[in-house]
Fold this protein.
Amino acid sequence: MTTDCARSRFPSTRLGRLAITLATATLVACGPGASPPLDSATDTHAADEQAVYAAMLANDYGAPFYVLRDRTPSFSLDDPDFAVDLDYVVKQMPGLSVETVASFCVRNDAGSALAAGMNFGAPYQLWTDQESKAFFGSGMDGWQRFHEKYPEAPGIIYLSRAGFGSAGDQALLYWGFQTDWLYGDGGYVELAKVAGAWQVVVRVVTIMS
């Protein structure tokens, strides 16, 4: 069963012991012998990452077609907003391991390109900065034109790289979603691999418009 949480306000930063443990785990993850996180040809989590994307999209939207941002975001603990979000999210996901969080931070240290032809459970179109400028650069009819061109897509979805636990059966993912000028949300999703299939456990909304 999926649990949804929403942050009603920004809490004070309380990383404390988590920050120390996370920093240590991140150093281990970045150390010699770590799997390169941005190369799908050598990434041991590549197949599971696609399955995580597919599970999240099916759980949240169940659409026959998706429009996805062509690049993933980057996150850094040096960013106070991300540190506060992460602190809040970890408290809402008590089963989330430090290794999963560390993996998320390492794999999202820099943005990377999503590839065409991945198996997300439904066909999709990659959305570029050039298309954003063409649709939304002038005038207020951008979203109307978007929905006319992509009537089966719920909106534009922004996905991070997925972080994975040491056992490979837990994942953490960030999503962002926009479907009109003042309608969208974003946050974090914890997923678990049960009997070989990924499923959403907890969704934590950290931004809403």
